[in-house]
Specification:
43% of the residues lie in helices and 17% in strands. By secondary structure, the protein is α/β, with parallel strands linked by helices.
Length: 218
Amino acid sequence: MSRPVIVVVGAGPGVSGSVARRFADEGYDVALLGADQQVLDDLVPDLEARGATVGHTVADVTDEQAARDAVRRFGEHTGHIDVLHFNPSAYREKDPLTLSVPELLEDVALGVGALLTVAQAARPHMSAGGRISVTGSMAADEPWEGAASLGVQKAGVRNLVHSLDKALRGDGIRAVSVTVRGTLSREGAFTPDRVADALWDAVTTDESQWRTEVPYPG
């Protein structure tokens, strides 16, 4: 049997890179979709050294056609997508009195809308047991007014995860958002590797215990 496959959307050096490494260590092949070729080039040899076969594509995930095509190519090449992990969000340091509507919509297109795009593209290649995971944030519940669009994105993407789970669970596919209740750091509970561990635990939760939102720390 072929190895399971994770597609990491928004692949970068932080949590998404740690997620790719954690799943590679667990025997997954990895497909990376990101915005920066150099970042992807840096990730690939590390993942290959862990035994993974790695595919990678640079695309703007707010370009709906480009994102759909990239995920479709991954699915067609591997024959299946077992986990789709979504990481992107936009950080724009503007409060709600200076944030414009076009700026808000631009950020939401990345942090929420792109999940819709890649989930729809991945669905034909997913079957029972498939999982969708999202890096969530406490900004959904406790937004900082200095970056007002981030809280909107994180609340919106969590809501979309709930809807995706309801739409897919009849086919045995589940979705989960892991709400990171702290600031990423180089040490302690909020290192990217620790968050990746939490995402692994959430994705591999038995369906009888499934929750569509998991706080971290629990």
